[in-house]
Specification:
Radius of gyration: 23 Å
Strand content: 5-15%
Number of strands: 2
Structural class: alpha+beta
Order of helices and strands: EEHH
Low-confidence stretches: none
């Protein structure tokens, strides 16, 4: 994705801000949301596998399917 970025500098030449077209900004927000959702699913699955391993080792009490579904 090619984005037309404008850089804003202060009078001393220090970079202070950037400007992007609103259509590019909206595309960036959509991509960010997509990757945030993907990361949440990955983290949730990782946590679920850890829970299962602890249940198999007897370190965590097992849960019935009904109880599991009630948590959703």
């Amino acid at each position: 994705m090619k984005i037309n970025i404008n850089y804003l500098n202060d009078q001393d030449g220090n970079l202070k801000a950037v400007q992007v077209p609103i259509s590019d900004w909206q595309k960036l927000q959509e991509k960010l949301l997509y990757y945030e959702q993907k990361l949440k699913i990955r983290n949730d699955l990782t946590e679920a596998f850890k829970d299962v391993a602890q249940m198999q080792q007897g370190k965590k009490p097992k849960q019935s399917l009904t109880d599991f579904l009630d948590e959703l």
